Amino acid sequence: PVLRYVFSYHLPKILDRENTFHREINEKEE
After folding, report:
1. What pLDDT, on the 0 to 100 scale, is given for residue 1?
2. What integer pLDDT is reported at residue 7 of this predicted model?
3. The domain containing residue 8 runs over which residues?
4. Three-class DSSP labels, the chain
5. How many domains are contained in the chain?
6. Buried b / exposed e across 16-29, counting CB within 10 Å, b at 16+?
7. CA 14 to chain centre
8. Tens digits of per-residue pLDDT, 1-30?
9. How far does Cα 28 stand from its chain's mean position?
10. pTM value surpassing 0.90
């Protein structure tokens, strides 16, 4: 359960960072 908690806690942050990264790239390309 602990591993699952850590995973569910960090995964959103990682995904959010990825989304922000791609968003910045898209803005630069336009």
Report:
1. 74
2. 82
3. 1-29
4. CHHHHHHHHHHHHHHHHHHHHHHHHHHHHC
5. 1
6. eeeeeeeeeeeeee
7. 3
8. 788 888 888 888 888 888 888 788 778 876
9. 19
10. no
